[in-house]
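Target chain:
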Amino acid sequence: MLMPRKDSVLFLFKFIFGIIVLISSFVMAMVFGAADVRIKEIFLAMTSLEANDAVNVIREIRLPREIGAVFVGASLSVAGAIMQGLTRNPLADPGLLGLTAGANAALALTIALIPHANYFSMTIACFIGSAVGALMVFGIGAMKKGGFSPFRIVLAGASVSAFLFAIAEGISLYFKISKDVSMWTAGGLMGTNWKQLGIIVPFTGIGMIISFFLSRQLTIISFHEEVAIGLGQKIAQIKAVLFIVIILLTGASVALVGNMAFIGLMVPHIVRAIVGTDYRYVLPMSAIIGASFMLMADTLGRTIHAPYETPVAAIVSFLGLPFFLFIVQKRGKAIT
């Protein structure tokens, strides 16, 4: 059932606390790194025209990077929550169900065939690749009589992801563009700039806004489709729109940071433990917690072995794999 209206006040307090965590994570990400900066310099960079070396580092390197972390973390978390709601599969995640692998393969193909393609073209390629990857996974998962099995979908996702990553690697080797492809697919925020954000942020912003508007319908679908149909919901249209939202959020994220698994798996589970199963609350809180998580992971990656960077994808995977195994062990009987 949907969360009672009286609990909205409790959610508001939790949401405000989440905003505080997000702001704190953002400030930490701005302050700490290979070159530590002061709070005063961050304030100057954002509020005045004054310029010095530290302020320039903040404005041109650290600020766009951390804004990118916010939108990528929020996008992947919301996409994961939507996927788990639509499929009623606790293991659903854009990185585990072929979307990021499809985007990576599309990137490699675009770089090979259109070497001078601009960033907007790369982003569109990621959208197309994500859609192809998802369609392959769900197509394979639906082949067996009896409909979707969450466990079968995960196996299909692993197989399709391996296949698409192999295609990307084969294209890289054949066309001798391994270095260029690796720069896109390594899974990190290094080099994020304002031009990239100007392309990515509108897509992710629109995708999240649409998902928030459809959160009530997603809650009903996540319980039982027959109930949703009985309540007059247009299931096919809602699923189609939410599928497009997932493609927008995942494709834009991959275009910016490359392969990034497990965020869309972990964050929705954490959020549901905090706010319950009503997606009117799960989706916005997933955006907040996902953004905070990505900021903290990026900060750790920049500081754990400074001045060298530890790939943020490695940090996320280090935390995500045990979480994945925990979910499998906890809910194994329910998903087989």
About this structure: The mean pLDDT is 85. The domain at 5-89+190-335 is CATH 1.10.3470.10 (ABC transporter involved in vitamin B12 uptake, BtuC). The two ends are 25 Å apart (CA to CA). The first helix runs from residue 8 to 31.
